Amino acid sequence: xxxxxxxxxxxxxxxxxxxxxxxxxxxxxxxxxxxxxxxxxxxxxxxxxxxxxxxxxxxxxxxxxxxxxxxxxxxxxxxxxxxxxxxxxxxxxxxxxxxxxxxxxxxxxxxxxxxxxxxxxxxxxxxxxxxxxxxxxxxxxxxxxxxxxxxxxxxxxxxxxxxxxxxxxxxxxxxxxxxxxxxxxxxxxxxxxxxxxxxxxxxxxxxxxxxxxxxxxxxxxxxxxxxxxxxxxxxxxxxxxxxxxxxxxxxxxxxxxxxxxxxxxxxxxxxxxxxxxxxxxxxxxxxxxxxxxxxxxxxxxxxxxxxxxxxxxxxxxxxxxxxxxxxxxxxxxxxxxxxxxxxxxxxxxxxxxxxxxxxxxxxxxxxxxxxxx
Length: 373
Ligand code: FAD
Prior knowledge:
Elements: H1 2-15, E1 90-99, E2 109-115, E3 127-131, E4 135-136, E5 141-142, E6 146-149, E7 163-169, E8 174-175, E9 180-181, H2 188-195, E10 201-208, E11 222-228, H3 233-243, H4 248-252, E12 256-263, H5 272-281, E13 286-292, H6 307-313, H7 315-323, E14 327-332, H8 336-351, H9 355-364, E15 368-372
Parallel strand pairs: 11-12, 11-14, 12-13, 14-15
Antiparallel strand pairs: 1-2, 1-10, 2-7, 3-6, 3-10, 4-5, 8-9
Helix pairs in contact: 1-5, 6-8
This protein binds flavin-adenine dinucleotide.
The site of flavin-adenine dinucleotide has 22 residues, from strand 6, strand 7 and helix 2.
């Protein structure tokens, strides 16, 4: 009884975060006070944190959600890929595009909701492809597909099962010779998506990928999620599935979801308000650690705090969890992996573990999930 009351309180608040930003993409957001609970940053005492989102009207679909569940819900034998292919994409519609980051974030990241009309169902951890319009001048044929990790659960943020949320960072090109951005070399698809308007049509492919699925057959699972930047997308999905919706998966979950996110500074944090609600309502089932490379605090060697430094702080706990069967996930720019691997190698050496054998074992057991780009 107590548990479900807490759960529903969390749900109401989480629903308030369906729209994480308030201004159209391209405009800077007014600075706002963020209540954070992290070991990396001096914190507001957690008990005094109040969700800041509006407690707006209840959305359709609040309450029990199971109309898109497999039977039993953890059975992944029916996970589909490539329902829509590049040659015959699904025409979706943009529902909303919202800037997610504050004025001091380097670059722009947008939360983009797309209506797929229920025709492109997906599982948490999968990606969509987007076909930007236009001709690739290098190949003299239409631009190819770009993949984007899905940031909503299968129900979509509106819980209709008909929408998908993407978390897209505008790719820009900084010219070292001029010391300025060169708009002629900006990324095609990311800028197309971030500049799109509600009602615009968008060509979608997918869903794709099975590497990042959640092993829900074990409700006591420990998920260790390591993200940089937009790599947060699949983990926002996981956390929403575990703590933000009244699905059988969420109701049965008794394990731990531990997120490490690396971004430049506080203004670059993504979905933080939503995560704070989950932390508040599930303090025994969730952990959250941020590494803010341009803001500090510094790592133990006095250098910038990168994601691998933050994970290293908890190396004993992470290794202990992996030894007990935890699944570890990585998502974000591929440049994050060498630092992670070096750090893990160093920890293994200190513990007298053969790193290659250790990693091989994790991979063989299906505990190691990497999707970097
Ligand atoms: P492109 O047009 O493909 O350009 C790529 C880069 O080249 C850009 O930085 C551009 O500025 C630069 N460039 C262009 N012309 C030149 C030139 N002449 N000289 C030098 N540089 C040049 N991205 C996300 O934002 N969010 C996600 O959730 C996400 N998930 C992904 C999941 C997977 C599995 C994969 C594989 C990728 C994912 N990506 C994600 C990356 C995404 O697919 C695109 O690669 C990204 O958006 C850039 O595409 P673009 O079309 O904007 O850039």
